[in-house]
């Protein structure tokens, strides 16, 4: 007996949309078993991870704050994934956007003006787009894989950020800590609700979701992106340029990632530090697929993934659960999502090997 994998004749649409909630359910069950094996109370751990953060205003505000960059980056990545453009370096583009926007804030340190924050935003978008333009150029000009280039550039951006906060941009009054000066008030995002850290960037992320939904479902550009991804030959016949789509999707993702990076340093952090996010640029890849590459689905998926960050912090304080539980839960969620997608598109069957017929005695004698 052997296993045979064969594609299904028709992929069920209801099952495709059912796989994200089923993946979340599978993650919860697997986490329950794993926490029990590790010696923790699984019910309490799951409560801290997925329920406790939703029980007060502070938890809900932090949920919106952490979901905002995940949603912004996930929307940009989804557009590229629909066109088969695989940008894996959004984390590096986030850092470069934070560097560019933070550089503007430091250049005008001590000055006040309404124009500083818009200028920082433009610089952050430009920084993220410039970093994404490198894999776009190499792919369209030389056919180099954008996966490898964008991923490797992430580590270059990380080292560049560390160099700046340890060198020329280090706060001279910061007790030798690797950090820049604190941004002035004009360089910080306005807080929407007193007593919380929810800032105007959350509203921008919601606007990005609406604009992306309109563009992808109601515009010629969205149709062009989907056609290039689903049927490249038909796209060429229709006159759609694959090169144009590669540039557009990579630059859009880089710009959104750079803006998300600025919202982190001009929002809850208030300065440049070596570690800006816990890996939002990579987690946004899971968010994009969990949301089925649809802007509204990405909004819901971003809230789920943000909940895993907040819940892990809660469980670490209450139970001493390792901080790596966040990555563990996210990895299990990705595993169940990929496994579910595979089973929706393919059928696995047990096949009995064909019996080999023995030659007749007369045939043996002739031989």
TrEMBL record:
One of its GO terms (cellular component) is plasma membrane. The keyword Transmembrane helix applies. It comes from the Bacteria. Its main location: membrane. GO terms for molecular function: transmembrane transporter activity. It is found in: Cell membrane. The chain crosses the membrane at residues 21-43, 63-81, 93-109, 115-138, 147-166, 198-216, 245-263, 324-344. InterPro entries: ABC_transp_permease. Pfam families: BPD_transp_2. It is a multi-pass membrane protein. Keywords: Cell membrane, Membrane, Transmembrane, Transmembrane helix. This is ABC transporter permease. It comes from Lichenifustis flavocetrariae.
